[in-house]
Every structure is written in C-alpha cells, then in structure tokens.
Amino acid sequence: MIDLGLSKMALIGAVALIVIGPEKLPRVARTVGTLLGKAQRYVNDVKAEVNRSMELDELRKMKESVETAARDVENSVRTGTADFEKQWSDAVGSAGESQPAIEPPPSYPEYKHPKKKWRLKQGATPQWYKARNGIRTRALSGAARVARFRPKKLN
C-alpha cells in the first residue's frame, strides 16, 4: 500500500496548488473526494457480495447435513415401526383370543352459547328519571367538560 503521512499529504497539496491553481483546486478536490467515495462504496459492495456468497455456501452445506440427518431419523423410525408392527401382530396372533370390542367414546351434548347480550347491558334506572334529576347519561370528553364548566366572563 501507499504510505501517506502528514508530510507527504502536505507536499501533494502544495504541488496541486501550484499546478492546478487556487481557483480550480476546490472543485478538483471535491471531484476527487466524490470519486474516492464511489470507489470505496464499490469495494464495500463487492466485499459484501463475496461474504453473502460464502454464507450462502455454508447454509447450503448445513441444509444438506440437516436433510441427511432427517432422512436417517425417518429411516430409523420406519424400521422401528415395522419391527413393532411385526412384534404386535405376532403377539396378537399367538394370543388366539378374540379381541374385545373397542367402546366408542361417550357422547356429550353439544355446547350451546347462552346468548347473553352483555354489550347491550341496560341500567336499572330509567332514562326519564336520569333526565329529570340531571344525572349524566352520556360521557363527556375532557374538552367538552372544560367548556361546560368554564366560568362565564363578566363584562
């Protein structure tokens, strides 16, 4: 890599100031800065893509190992069930007795909702009584409550 220290950067800046001139130097520096930024972003994108492809390869290998393990487990379960069914049929066949009839599960009556309308609950006090005695029947918002009970201005 290029080893750029502070002294070398100052020397490059002085030469650029002499060669390019003080009028064009800010524009050239800005252009060089944007180009360097684009180059860094491109390099970072390439690195990220390489890392993603490496991780993808690792995930594929892991997926294959998990699939082989699942196949092995499936095969062992199948052989185990085949052995169990064979032993079961031998045991049932050697018993020679008729199997008792399996009873169906007891039947229960189907659930019936009580059909209560708890959202439509009505109060015990009639509306006409509330209206006559000044009992609130509707909730007020905070702003409406403030407006209602705000003291009146005296002129």
Note down, in words, how this protein is organized.
The structure is a single chain. This protein has 155 residues and is mostly helical. It has a domain of 86 residues. It is 65% helix and 0% strand. The chain has four helices and no strands. The model has no long low-confidence stretch (mean pLDDT 83).
Summary of the model, kept short:
This protein has 155 residues and is mostly helical. The protein is built from 4 helices and no strands.
Name the features.
about 160 residues, mainly alpha, 4 helices, about 0% strand, flat
Please write out the topology.
Layout: H1 6-20, H2 25-95, H3 127-133, H4 142-148
Keywords: Cell inner membrane, Cell membrane, Membrane, Protein transport, Translocation, Transmembrane, Transmembrane helix, Transport
Protein name: Sec-independent protein translocase protein TatB
GO biological process, one term: protein transport by the Tat complex
Radius of gyration: 43 Å
Which term fits the overall shape?
Answer: flat
Task: Measure the end-to-end span.
Answer: 86 Å
Class per helix and strand makeup:
mainly alpha
Average pLDDT number: 83
- Can you count the beta strands? 0
Largest sheet: none
Low-confidence stretches: none
Q: Percentage of helical residues?
A: 55-70%
Strand content: under 5%
How many helices in DSSP terms?
4
- The ordered string of helix (H) and strand (E) elements is HHHH
